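Holo prediction — adenosine-5'-triphosphate.
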Amino acid sequence: MAKTEQVAEAGGNVLEVSGVTLRFGGLTSLNDVSLSMGRGEILAIIGPNGAGKTSFFNSVTGAYLPQEGTIGFLPRAGGRHELRGCKPYLVSRHGVSRTFQNIRLFGALTALENVKIAVETRQKTDAVSIMLGLPHARRAERESDRRAHEVLAFVGLEGRLNELASSLSYGEQRRLEIARALATGPELLLLDEPAAGTNPTEKRDLEDLIRRINADLGVSVLLIEHDMKLVMSVADRVVVLNFGKKIAEGTPGEVQRDPAVIEAYLGASAEEDAAAVADVVAEQAASGAAEGEVKGA
Ligand SMILES: Nc1ncnc2c1ncn2[C@@H]1O[C@H](COP(=O)(O)OP(=O)(O)OP(=O)(O)O)[C@@H](O)[C@H]1O
């Protein structure tokens, strides 16, 4: 069965965002953004630097409070949770978890401990019961240990359980972050630039992991990524932001051909080119080079 049919069969949307506007003083980071995401979908959000991608994630996960709009999360069990203005721990409890652009692990704890902490945020055991070693606290501890082992095996880190997070390779740290996000049993997983800083082999492993999270665990994946090859290969659909506005959406192929998208990216690279040329001009002026040489740069 084709992926689009599977998504349709899974039924309805998992996320419905309408008219979200987020301002920081005079700067509009998200400008009337609306999108919906089908249950079981891998949806990528792309756009040049500063387009509003992370602001969007922060708005969905409760870190930012948009001035306008609604963000509905629709769990499989039914009902609708409004995520705009929802506390981050409640967003996670509702079934939405995320990773960060800059890895946020506890470097001095082992891989296993990092994941167990995430599992335990979902458990209801209180600190006193844990200290006293009460039976229900011991049961919870065994359960978090089992779950953490399971998740670490899923991401391929079963051989690194007792390594300190800080001693893992960059690609392994990225996978550990994903394991930690999966440990809470999300229905919707937000990955913020998971391929950043990884090498080509790690990128291929990551592609495979994202597909397995989606297909084997039935988790819907919202992905921010600058690596277009990865986006084009894993995403079912792509939404493009530029200056906080949604400028396009469609299949990876449709978006790649969209003139507005091409212009947004060309504009960004033209600015970079302009900045690079300006640097060359400044350098040559400093070294007393002739103007004619600069024009040819
Ligand atoms: N906490 C904040 N305070 C002020 N401005 C912010 C804040 N967070 C984001 N912004 C601004 O909002 C705009 C969008 O930023 P955002 O980080 O969401 O973009 P992005 O698409 O994720 O960029 P990148 O690809 O570089 O990570 C930028 O102009 C940024 O400076």
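READOUT: Residues 52 and 168 are 31 Å apart (CA to CA).
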